[in-house]
Each structure stands twice: as structure tokens, then as C-alpha cells.
Amino acid sequence: MALAMASMNGFCGSSQAVMEGSLQLNGSGRLSVAKTNRIPLARTGFKVRAQQAQISAPTETSRRAMLGLLAAGFASGSFVDKMALAETKSSKPVKIAGIAGSISQTATSKGLIRAATKLAKDIPGLEVEYIDIDNLPMFNLDLVNGDNYPQPVEDFFDKLRSKDGILFASPEYNYSFTAPLKNAIDWASMEPDTLKDKTAAIVSTGWDLGGARSQYQLRQVGIRPDIYFINKPELFINVGSGSIFNDDGTLKDKDIETKYKDLLVSLKDFTIRFRPCKEPRAATNIAS
Predict the structure, then answer these.
(1) How many CB atoms lie within 10 A of CB 251?
(2) Rounded mean pLDDT of the chain?
(3) What's the domain range around 14?
């Protein structure tokens, strides 16, 4: 029997902390991390287990109560002090790969990635790097020789491996996302360490719905390679009225710029919360 089911949104680490006794209730009824009893936090198949035989009845009862408080906090959105949990604290910068869905050099999607690299400079702890997919060959297993891939593909793999997450700028073509973007994902999914457990966000462009249909199909394709997309905010940009950029590459519409920055902040925060779930840790089993 499992005492708790942890979600990837940071709950995997905090619920484990409760079971290990490192997360405690303070005098004001808030949850906090005991400084002398912090433990490695990790994703263990999204299930948190502990040795029931090692827990006394009163202790188990109190920790069950704290788990209930944690779950209620996540459900209500009024979670305890955001920086009280060890998993939310990180001095390591969040590194994001910016991938544009079009190979046209004048594409709006390329401009949006360039704009993101500039906006990220005003967001402490966030780095966005443009990653080119223009030279990737069409996905073809005939081009794979054992563990060897074409050099542009190998270079693409290496750049992705060094990143924590991905920002997709997805134009909508015929109610879907683009062939170059699908091609890049197909190549990257050949090696599990390129996409697995990457966080991601999407900014889409299109006419009537701002590329909304491309976003939802892109999210579906990310399921198999284990890409974890943020849910909110969503950003759909209508490009029917011409260029959305100033001559210096910044966005003309300040409202869109604000929403885009909010998207980047959300991706950064989600990536930080997800980090404890990616750290390997040996699982302990609970007696039935």
C-alpha cells in the first residue's frame, strides 16, 4: 500500500520529506523543512514509499495528517511558504532550448525565440538559447549507423542534453504544427536522454485562433518522449495583421510581451519544482 501518490509538480519531493520526517509542522501550523534532517528528494515512479515497520503509530498518524495538509494545499493553490521546501530552492540557472517550428529565416517563430532570449535576461536564473533545426535531415533510419547519427543530428542531441527545458515557437500549418518541428522531435526521441523529463512551454502563431490547434497537437506528440508541458499560461498570437516585431526585434504589443514574459517565468518555476523528481534515488518499499 502506498501512503501517498506524488505529482510531478513538486509534490514528489515534499511528500517524501513528510514520510522521512524532514518536513514538519511549526508552531503557526505551517509546514517547514527541518534543517537537521533534510534528505535527497527524487522521483521514484511517482510513488512515495516508506518502511511502515519503522514508524510508530502516533508518528504515522501525524505524518498522514501532514500529507493531507500538503495535498489540500496543492489542490487549493494556497500552498505553504513557497520557498520553505528544499525542492523549491535552487541556485542553478534554468537553461532553456528555444526551438522555432519554421525554417524560414524571416519566420515569426524565429523572431519569437530571439525575443525570448532578450526577455530572459530580465528574469533572474533563466537562460534561453536558440537552437537551430534548419539543417536536420529528414528523419530516416537509413541514415543511422549503429549508434552513429548524421553530424547535424549529433550536434542537435548535444545541445538538447545540456538544457533543462524547451521553449517551442509553433506556427500553425493546416491546423497542425510544422513538419520541421515534428522532424526535430522524431530525431530527438531516438535517444532518451535528449527529451526525457524535459519541461516545456509553447508560444504559437496563426491567424484566427493564434495557432491554438498546433499547440494541442504538439502537446500530444510530447507524451511518448516524456516531455512535461506547463499548463498555464497559454499564449496564442494572431499574426494576420503583419509583423509583430519592432526593428530591434522586440515585440510591438506590450500586452503580448508581458504575457510572453509570464510564460517564461512559469516555465522557469515549473522546471525548478520538477528538479527533485529527476534525481535518482533508491526506492524503499512499504509492507502491505
Answers:
(1) 21
(2) 76
(3) 4-88
